[in-house]
Specification:
293 residues; mainly alpha; MetI-like fold; two-stranded antiparallel ribbon
Amino acid sequence: MTNLARRARVGRQAVAGWLFVAPFTVLLVFFLLLPMLYAAKLSLYRSTLVEGEVFAWLDNYRQALGDPEFRRGVVRVLVFGAVQTPVMIGIALVAALLIDAATSRFSRVFRLAAFVPYAVPVVIGTLMWGFLYSPNTGPLSSVIDVDFLSSGTVLYSLGNIVTWQWAGYNMIVLYAALQGVPREVYESARMDGAGAVQTALRIKTPMISAAIVLVTIFTIIGTLQFFTEPLILQPLNPGAITNSYTPNVYAYHQAFSYQQYNYSAAISFLLGVVVFVGSYIFLFVTRKRSALR
């Protein structure tokens, strides 16, 4: 093959590759990058009655950093993530290990049962749990004398919704990673006298550390962007789930309840910084224990 023919072939392959990624690129640009650029522009301006939109530079960010409502929301989601992430990953890991160890024909049924809550839309799942939590009509309150939506318990109630909504997704990812581990490793462990628990803790878990780190990153990002569940349950107890309960809920109400679009954009970008910093710190701490860099 001559150099000219080789270059023509490489050019055709490059064009074919760009054609394959073009739909995703278009969606990425028009539905993510351009809205982010527009929001970044909004965050640098401020609406006034006299002058209209005026360039405010970083005034909106300074206001958000000094806003006690925003700071309380950030602290709340950080505490929520610090508790929720280990619980969710632990449940997903245990479920994945149990299903991986099961050799019966019911293992597929168990996988489907654990994944079904993730297949239910978040809004519908939250509405279902809201009915169960309701002190007036919910069956849980009639069985257990607890107000699941009070100020002291609502965060735990929301954590329960998130756990069963996302644990199945994390379980599928970890189970897929376990399926990639060579079975010869398990046979060698059994020959060396390792039991099922020792194999799970000392062989299976370390060998899927990269997948554990990956799903943990997804969980951290998701918990720090906590939004849908508290917003849906807010009408049931507005006193416990306030308009500033989480940063995303606060930004939503600033934009659509008070028409403070510029300030809402600044809050959103500050939350993005918190998510990035939190994810980077976790990756930095776990970089030696996984294949992720």
